[in-house]
Design brief:
With about 800 residues, this protein is of the alpha+beta class. It is built from 28 helices and 32 strands. The strands form 9 sheets. Strands 8, 9, 10, 11, 12, 13 and 16 form a 7-stranded mixed β-sheet that branches. It has a 4-stranded parallel β-sheet with strand order 2-1-24-25, with helices on one face. It has a 4-stranded antiparallel β-sheet with strand order 4-3-7-17. α18 links the parallel β24 and β25. α20 crosses α21, α23 runs antiparallel to α24 and α24 packs antiparallel against α25. The longest helix has 22 residues. The radius of gyration is 34 Å and the shape is globular. The two termini are about 65 Å apart.
């Protein structure tokens, strides 16, 4: 038989489509598996990373279907976002047209790989029906108080009059006009993810052993739980007189190192701190200093993190809460407004960052911990004894921290608190191509949620996207509306939502049958059946934001009564990148491999076999054209040897048949491959398909070393079953011709074929290997020694055997007299 992928692959793709083989059944009594690969952004063409991600998920889905499971394996499109607007500007097209054209192109490429996606469950997040339910969720979360509005700083291009994403700021400049970007304070909407911070942290423990440890650690670090002391420094009387304001009396701080409080030598404030805002309106600091502070503010946090530490002395002082010492106030570019209270107590002797700043500006450095061993400054450790710390001197770091916190609490100076690095999720985007925020600004009623009967609020098609300003804000017929409460004239909110909102619940939408999509966002009945996702597959780059937001959304929707689960993804597999010449494939590096080229020249099954054989899923995969050729040759050989197989609808049974050594070995290798398949699919965080493919290749080699037609038939009956999730077109074609597809059911393992009747034992003389023998498993010690002596006769000739040692099932060692 000849392997002709250009004929076979379209043929089977059409058969599967007509038979609706990949559609989930709506029978909730069936055992189920929900296999999901992270959905793609419709950028225009698939790349090798897509091929790897979706082939991994497809192999798992096909395996479980074959094992009799009801499988949900959907695909969709994460379709909103900035690239569509950029393309609209560059190509003078509409984002909607660009997006749906790309979806059509990528869908064609993905289905050419033979991926077993459900076609009835497919959607794009820019579909109006998806927007309707997302907006409905928004209004419910808003009413619950989990979404709020406040001022926040954004990247602003004064020339284009538009907000920029972090990715659009290049070296502090606008990606489009190359003008300097500033930080502008604007009203933004925030999701109160911090309301769930403790649960988000605690339920990570439930994912131990089911999610990669690296991802769990990254999420824990992002949440950033820390224990410490919250207290304040009171401004000095001189400073209060200078400020002439009753609003500012104290500087609130949080520290995880209360043991170092006597080492404070300056206070550092973030440029956005409210006291700094007040100072900018006074004459306390010079105009040059004001300009410098404004430059700090106009630099994004990302850019600041790359800069050298820089600060300005503020001509203000505060009093140390324990000894009354006056401490200088500074504004510094390394202090974050988002952490603590946007102000830090700086202890240069025991903090590296504070130390660098103090050295630059020649500020005092007060050592208050004596290390157990000699160290260089700063002493960034948590052991040693306190010195120069009043009554807390001579206490260990740990004891001092506890007693200092108790002192603050007993004297109403501060309190012990748990702090988190996690901040509320800013979801406002001043762009067109996103889900409109369903809020109305009414002069009489304030900000109110749009009525459910008016959803979805869809985007206007007659829009001008030129990169200047917010297109929706300039569209008067869309912007002006009626208040849903008082019916007076009002304005729509013109911000759209962060696209992470769409990807935070799409997996729940898939779990609802498409025939219910008009009626409900999430079917509680089917959600209870399908959720959680049994295997979620995607890149490690999504370890924090997407996965964290999806976990939050799941908990929020649970509390709204839509679902009854705590975590969305039971198992997580993070696949490695596809590399070429040691680097990630990218257009800029010119090292792109086009999947379409591989499919046209070698076939989809060759691409699938290569991508699953070249490396375990969680490891990086290096592109290798020779390996691709090898995969093609293996499939061609599989077709070629099929002529040795007898057509049947049943697997041959071997009872009371005498087989040769080669025939027994061939059967053994076939069933070892079947056992390897069981091992691979049960290893939740591994799925080492490369080992399964290697076992199938070894089986074919062993079959080739014998000529029993029945054993060829049995071998193909099983091996084609094992290869079906990996090379489905070829496996289905050969299975149909040879076995009328009766072999594509759960494999029954003949353990008799795996039974060893003989064993190979090494022979050593004085510990040096000289040969090997094959003996029956039940051979006596005397027989083994006799066979071994015969095998290495030439090495023993003329020597006296002092001792013969048999290590059962392993080796025979002869100890001979040395000459």
């Amino acid at each position: 038989m000849e392997y002709n992928p250009k004929l076979i692959e379209p043929k089977w793709q059409e058969i599967w489509k007509k038979q609706a083989d990949f559609e989930p059944k709506h029978n909730k009594n069936l055992k189920k598996k929900y296999i999901l690969s992270m959905f793609p952004y419709p950028s225009g063409k698939i790349h090798m990373g897509h091929v790897r991600n979706y082939c991994i998920g497809d192999a798992i889905a096909r395996h479980y279907r074959k094992e009799g499971y009801n499988v949900l394996h959907p695909i969709g499109w994460d379709a909103f976002g900035m690239p569509a607007e950029n393309a609209a500007i560059q190509n003078k097209t509409h984002p909607k047209e660009w997006t749906y054209n790309n979806i059509a192109q990528m869908k064609k490429e993905l289905y050419a790989l033979g991926l077993s996606f459900s076609q009835t469950q497919e959607f794009a997040t820019c579909d109006p029906l998806y927007s309707k339910w997302e907006q409905y969720f928004f209004t419910q979360i808003w009413e619950k108080g989990l979404i709020y509005r406040k001022k926040g700083f954004v990247n602003w291009c004064p020339f284009d009059q538009t907000v920029l994403a972090n990715e659009q700021v290049v070296d502090g400049k606008c990606w489009r006009c190359d003008n300097m970007v500033v930080q502008k304070e604007m009203y933004q909407y925030y999701v109160k993810i911090t309301a769930y911070v403790q649960e988000l942290l605690e339920t990570l423990n439930e994912l131990q052993g089911r999610w990669p440890n690296q991802v769990l650690t990254m999420q824990k670090n992002w949440i950033g739980q820390s224990f410490g002391l919250e207290f304040h420094f009171t401004l000095s009387q001189k400073s209060l007189q200078l400020l002439d304001s009753i609003e500012y009396k104290n500087i609130n701080v949080f520290t995880t190192r209360p043991d170092t409080i006597f080492g404070v030598s300056y206070l550092a404030l973030a440029p956005e701190h409210s006291l700094i805002t007040l100072l900018l309106t006074t004459d306390i600091i010079s105009q040059d200093d004001k300009d410098s502070i404004k430059r700090m503010r106009n630099t994004s946090l990302r850019e600041r993190s790359k800069e050298e530490k820089y600060g300005i002395k503020l001509n203000l002082t505060a009093l140390h809460p324990l000894n009354g010492e006056e401490i200088d106030l500074w504004v510094a570019n390394f202090v974050l407004i988002e952490y603590g209270h946007g102000a830090i107590m700086a202890v240069p002797a025991h903090d590296e960052r504070d130390y660098e700043f103090a050295c630059k500006y020649n500020l005092p450095i007060k050592q208050v911990i004596q290390p157990k061993q000699a160290h260089n400054l700063p002493y960034c450790f948590k052991d040693g004894m306190l010195i120069d710390s009043a009554e807390f001197s001579n206490l260990s770091v740990q004891d001092a921290a506890q007693k200092i916190i108790k002192y603050f609490e007993d004297n109403a100076l501060g309190k012990s608190i748990v702090n988190y690095r996690l901040r509320d999720w800013g979801i406002s985007r001043q762009r067109y191509w996103g889900t409109p925020i369903p809020l109305i600004h009414c002069p009489s009623c304030g900000i109110v949620a749009e009525s459910a009967k008016n959803l979805p609020i869809t985007l206007p098609d007659d829009i001008c996207i030129d990169g200047e300003g917010n297109p929706l804000d300039k569209h008067s017929s869309w912007k002006y509306t009626k208040c849903p409460k008082c019916h007076k004239d009002a304005q729509r909110e013109t911000d759209t939502m962060d696209t992470f909102m769409e990807s935070s619940w799409y997996f729940l939408r898939y779990a609802t049958p498409s025939y219910l999509w008009e009626e409900e966002a999430i079917s509680k009945e089917f959600g209870q059946y399908w959720m959680s996702v049994d295997e979620y597959i995607g890149g490690i780059e999504h370890a924090i934001l997407h996965l964290l937001y999806a976990r939050f959304f799941t908990k929020a929707l649970r509390d709204l009564g839509y679902i009854n689960i705590d975590e969305p993804f039971a198992h997580l597999l993070t696949q490695g990148m596809v590399l070429k010449d040691g680097s990630k494939m990218s257009k800029s590096k010119g090292n792109i491999i086009d999947p379409d080229f591989i499919i046209k020249h070698y076939g989809a099954d060759t691409a699938r076999l290569f991508i699953l054989f070249a490396a375990p899923p969680t490891k990086e995969l290096e592109w290798n054209e020779n390996a691709l050729e090898g995969a093609f040759r293996f499939i061609r050989r599989l077709f070629d040897k099929a002529q040795l197989v007898q057509k049947t609808e049943q697997c041959p049974i071997f009872t009371n048949i005498t087989l040769s050594k080669e025939e027994k070995y061939a059967r053994k290798k076939v069933y070892e491959a079947a056992l390897k398949a069981q091992e691979v699919y049960s290893r939740k965080n591994d799925y080492a398909f490369n080992t399964l493919i290697a076992a199938c290749m070894e089986s074919l080699n062993a079959l080739n070393n014998q000529n029993n037609t029945l054993i060829w038939t049995e071998g193909y009956y099983i091996v084609l079953n094992l290869l079906e999730p990996i090379i489905p077109h070829s496996a289905h074609e050969l299975s149909k011709i040879l076995f009328n597809s009766h072999n594509l059911t759960p494999v029954k393992i003949d353990f008799h074929a795996l039974k060893e009747e003989s064993i190979t034992m090494a022979i050593t003389i004085n510990g040096k290997r000289r040969g090997e023998i094959e003996v029956p498993l039940d051979a006596s010690k005397e027989f083994i020694i006799e066979q071994a002596q015969n095998n290495v006769h030439k090495w023993l000739k003329g020597h006296q055997i002092l001792k013969s040692i048999v290590v059962p099932y392993k080796l025979v060692n002869f100890v001979i007299a040395r000459e």
